[in-house]
Write a structure and sequence with these properties.
alpha+beta; Alpha-Beta Plaits; Chitinase A, domain 3; Trigger factor, domain 2; 3 domains; 5-stranded antiparallel sheet; 4-stranded antiparallel sheet; 48% helix
């Protein structure tokens, strides 16, 4: 019988020393051979009926040993965890100390566990500001509709503020085309302020058929770091200049754009939509604030194993993100003027935050005994099915692993909802 002892334990992880018997190794070997020989063929024997001794000689011995070790590690570690009633958080880190094929196996398994969280969540308080829609925001939305439904006519004159231009443009830096800085038949409204500062100004005075080349320096805080503060040369071809004739905001306009009898009805509809959007954004922002405040007041010991894994995951996320921008991580760090140590420190902080949130959520789920019924999962699946038309995507929704993932997300949201409700409550004295 497997001997499993705890040789080291902290608040966040447990280190097992496990010795596996020869009998268990031999049993695992037999099971591995039985599984492998299903596909083996030997003269005089039907498939799957090859004797174990003959089958073993045909098998790759290194792979057979690996299969046996994997089977034994999984079984004996599970047994050790159950025997000591340990609640694990992830797969263990295994260090094999001794292995004599099918005779001896000794290993150390270190695994992260759920730490005790000594915090009364009901005492958490975070101010919640109910979002409000202003008249200015409603008027801006109406103005956007005005622009959208305005009458446009081509004119043969120099472009001025308020005109709409259809152009081709391409941006180059040091003679090389800049990714994302080129377009054909792009519609530009002069004075909209939606482009890089200075770009629209260069278009004023241009006519249909005109061509122009000019330099633009990108803002220092531009969202693409490889372009921030950089000078880019743009070449512009104007295909059309249109004069925009503003439409009057009245009941006729309301009926035209939204099939509503009165302008006041349109304004109210805009207000409701804006309110719903603001409420959603406010709820998401509030949830984040509550979780951050909870972490701030909760003392957590985080497993070094979990921290290490999370840091590596974050590093991989960054690497993939900057790769999509055409950069390697090292080059991106140079652009950001960050050292490797500074970057690692940032990753560590974010890793601890993510792990902390996960541990708090799990703790709330357990303490509040939160669950998700199959009916809730199916209801959500039905809503998701109506949102997709691709048969492959819809088929994916019925996979067990997706349903399990969805159930985890739903119970996580229940925990967040419960926590935010506590945080909104009236001040509570100790």
């Amino acid at each position: 019988m497997t001997k499993a002892t705890i040789q080291n334990q902290t608040a966040s992880q447990v280190e097992f020393s496990i010795t596996v018997t020869a009998q268990e190794l031999q049993s695992a070997k037999t099971a591995a051979i039985q599984e492998a020989k299903k596909d083996l063929k030997a003269p005089g024997f039907r498939p799957g009926q090859v004797p174990d001794a003959i089958a073993e000689r045909q098998l790759d011995q290194a792979k057979l040993q690996m299969d046996v070790v994997e089977k034994v590690l999984a079984a004996t570690f599970t047994e050790a965890v159950k025997g000591h009633k340990i609640k694990t958080l992830a797969q263990p880190k295994v260090d094999i100390k001794k292995f004599v094929p099918y005779d001896e196996l000794e290993y150390v398994a270190t695994v992260a566990i759920l730490p005790d969280i000594d915090y009364d969540y009901t005492k958490l308080r975070v101010k919640y500001d109910e979002p409000k829609v202003t008249d200015e925001e409603i008027n801006q939305a109406l103005q956007n509709l005005q622009e959208q439904f305005a009458e446009r006519k081509a004119v043969d004159r120099a472009a001025k503020q308020g005109d709409e231009l259809r152009i081709d443009f391409v941006g180059k830096k040091d003679g090389e085309a800049v990714e994302g800085a080129a377009a054909q038949n792009s519609m530009i409204v002069l004075g909209s302020g939606r482009l890089i500062p200075g770009f629209e100004d260069e278009l004023i005075g241009m006519k249909k058929g005109d061509n122009k080349t000019f330099d633009i320096t990108f803002p220092e805080d531009y969202h693409a770091p490889e372009l921030a503060g950089q000078k880019v040369t743009f070449t512009i071809d104007v295909h059309e200049v249109r004069e925009v004739e503003e439409v009057k905001l009245d009941d006729t306009f309301a009926k035209k754009v939204a099939n509503m009898p009165k302008l006041s009805d349109l304004k109210e509809d805009i207000r409701v939509n804006l309110q719903e959007g603001k409420a959603k954004d406010a709820r998401q922002g509030y949830e984040s604030a509550v979780l951050e405040e909870t972490i701030k007041h909760t003392k957590l010991e985080i497993s070094p194993i979990l921290e290490e894994e999370q840091i590596q995951d974050l590093r991989n996320e960054y690497a993939e993100k900057v790769k999509s921008q055409g950069l390697e991580l090292e080059a991106w760090l140079k652009v950001q003027k960050k050292t490797e140590d500074e970057f690692t420190a940032e990753l560590t902080e974010e890793a601890r935050r993510r792990i902390g949130v996960g541990l708090i959520i799990r703790d709330i789920i357990e303490k509040q005994k939160l669950t998700v019924e199959i009916e809730e999962v199916n209801e959500q699946l039905e809503r998701m099915r109506t949102s997709y038309t691709d048969p492959e995507v819809i088929k994916h929704l019925d996979h067990d692993h997706f349903k399990n993932d969805l159930a985890n997300r739903l119970v996580t949201q229940k925990a967040v909802d419960w926590l935010t409700e506590q945080a909104k409550g009236p001040a509570k004295k100790d």
